[in-house]
Amino acid sequence: MKILIHYLLVIFLLQSSLLAHQNHAVVLQYHRFDEDRYPSTSISMELFTQQMQYLADNNYTVWPFSKTVKYLLEKKELPDKTVSITIDDGYRSVYTKAYPLLKKYKFPFTVFVNSAPVVHESVHYLTWDEMREMGKYGAEYANHTYSHQFLVRDGIKDPKNYKKHITKEIEMCEAKIEKELGAKVCKNPKILAYPFGEYDLKLMNLVKSLGYIGVAQNSGPISSESNFMALTRFPMSGGFGEMDQFRLKINTLPLPIKNVLLKDTLVNESNNPPSLTLTLKKPLKNLQCFTADGKKIAIQWLNNTTVTVQAQYSLEYPRNHYTCTAHAQGNAWYWYSHLWIVLE
């Protein structure tokens, strides 16, 4: 009898351990706070406060983005309900609006800095002293290039100088933030957020050769099986972070994908609308796909786990994406998003 009880206890503890850990996380992306002049990239402090309160009230584990990425790279288990908070560009409202609230909740956060406006002391951006102060209370910093240019499009226009130009943009930023912010800069691993969230195969390969993890802006959770040159995040600005959407998105699971046939993102006249073929690890008959404006996309099942997705109309400049979701369990949904860069 004692042996049986011991055996059941071991099974229970093992099951509890499995339930309490996961290999995926949700990453939130912000830009501006309470800057109504920029509705597509700003979130109200009222809504941001509700979001942070929800994370605190519902026992979410908020980790620095670099720590989350490192665990996933090393295929370590994450705590249940892991979330990371990222903020792009480094506008002043990060310090004046978001920082006091994040400090109050003791939530770590990651700021992707494009360093040129800081160097030139733009009043619209953070100062090095403000960033150093925030670094004492949970902030870490990562590369967003020096001058926040359209890297993919610039490379197409000037292929001869592509590698030199992109490398300079990345290395100038890295050198400056390391000099000013030291140990608060993400180094293990080094992380780069693509300006405007735009990347293609050529850029991903260059960024990888420079030793960086690449971060995108199209939506979806990340896992140990994600493409670490295009890690996805959920944008929270422009109406995408209302509380009903927020609650849904922070509980998403990575769509169980075995293979993506087309990994590039470029769309021109010859392939617009683009076609995307996904092979799933298991059948998901409730799969649905949508374009960025919420229009449903027709899908064609090639077999019970392989599906081709293609919009019914040409995608418009400058970018779009296909998002595919399926009900998982309870209130959770599987989620995957593929970026498309529409060329002129």
Automatic annotation (TrEMBL):
Localization per Swiss-Prot or TrEMBL: Secreted
Keywords: Signal
SUPFAM superfamilies: Glycoside hydrolase/deacetylase (SSF88713)
GO cellular component annotations of the record: extracellular region
Record-level Gene Ontology MF annotations: hydrolase activity, acting on carbon-nitrogen (but not peptide) bonds
Location of the NodB homology domain: 81-344
Top-rank lineage group of the source organism: Bacteria
Signal peptide boundaries: 1-25
CDD domains: CE4_DAC_u4_5s (cd10973)
DNA damage found in the keyword field: no
PROSITE patterns in the cross-refs: IG_LIKE, NODB
Name of this protein: Polysaccharide deacetylase family protein
Organism whose genome encodes this protein: Sulfurimonas sediminis
